[in-house]
Amino acid sequence: MAKPRPRLEKLTLDKDLDKFSLAEEASHHVMRRLAAPGLAALFLILSMGFAASYFTGATGAAVVVAAAAVAGYMAMNIGANDVTNNVGAAVGAKAISMPVALGIAAVFEIAGALIAGRKVTLTIEAGIIDGTQLVGAEGLVWVMLSALISSAIWINIATYSRAPVSTTHSLIGGIIGAGVAAAGLSSVKWWAIAGITASWTISPVLGGVIAALFLAFLKEFVIYRDDKISAARRWMPVVLGVTAGSFTAYVAVFAIDHLAFVPLPTGLSIGGLAGIACYIVSEPWIHRQSEGLENRNQSLRKLFRLPLIFSAALLSFAHGANDVSNAIGPLSAIVSAVDGVISSADSEAPFWVLLIGALGISVGLLLYGPLLIRVVGEEITRLNPMRAFCVALATAVTVLLASALGLPISSTHTAVGAVFGVGFFREWYTRHSQRRLEYVRRKTGQTEFMEKGETNFAEVRRRRLVRRSHFLTIVAAWVITVPVSALLSAFLYLVLSGLFL
Q1: What is the pLDDT of residue 377?
Q2: 236 close to 307: Cβ distance less than 8 angstroms
Q3: C-alpha dihedral over 86, 306, 113, 76, to 10 degrees?
Q4: N or C end of the chain: which has fewer CB within 10 A?
Q5: What average pLDDT is seen over the chain?
Q6: Worst-scoring range by mean pLDDT, 128-132, 318-322, 458-462?
């Protein structure tokens, strides 16, 4: 009697095919995990190629090439950690998807860095350490290189630990630590540090106040109106026009000042025209989008999608303009010092240096940004499109103002300050707004709302406002950022100077 060999052979073949399928899936999984590090390594090689191609100095080319790779690494870490400040609120409010948010951030980060990044770059490059106090230009090279390496390492650790820290704090701490190790306390421009430190304190407060004002306006004139849709049709084009006008005026007066001088009155006029144009274009769009919507708060989500996307783009531009200095300021100082020149307030960063910073930030946010977007956008506080719009726009306005003044403020501090401004304002508004109380009374018929609602405020804060535990964790990371970066940078300087000086 013959045995059923074909059936056994088929089963064996199926098992072999299953093994091949599992091996293929495992291979794809490993390749996906290796894709991001591979692309990052490719960008670092590209950065080194930029430096080798465009650096025209007679000596020190190897140092500049190495510094370009470190600056590219720093830029990628900035993009991975700070991208949460740009689009985290929009993603957390579910107004835009993660891929769309990353695409918007990447494009506008590059634009902000290339168009408006030069002014703050000079602050980082020449405004913290007095190069004349160091052991010649060569000493400045190792100070800046140590600062870059130490701050990049710390930001990488923080990103891996899901902690959104200040990249500006990291770099300035690194420069201070290496500068003190190189030439003592007298090498640091402490008055400049005091001004920068003051801006770190002011920025979260200012961001919170501006965000609260925006939210107050929306609540009073849109959210707690009997006819929300008509109110939105009336005021949303105004909001978009003011936002567009302010952004255009900033670009005209401050961002392109190294290309063409635009007087303040002219810049304001250009901004006004842009705001009017935006109002004219957005009014019919908002009217079409609002047709058929129910008169309730959930309907406002659709209308706020465009303003939230616009504010996220504006914030990405502001972040690129301000934080690109953290990567390319030290590199620009190294390029000048290798040529024997100590950077000053009149120094100008080469375009290829700006390009490394701009591309590096975008590469970092595309490869590693989603990790912290979820932390800031979903785990710190509960956001809807209106609150997210206020947070994003307030952060953008604060960072743009600081960039125009040449202050390297922390966009992380500003964004978290804006979140808290929204949260604290909501607490106050819930208790004290007569318009809100009257609105609730008309809708629910409840005449003793405050008395009945008093016992629920603790629960409201727990469920809906900013989670204090996350805030304390983030603040703890902020507190140790400067000393950790400074100590690591000082150690690296002592090692590098011992080997090469």
Answers
A1: 62
A2: yes
A3: 40
A4: N
A5: 78
A6: 458-462
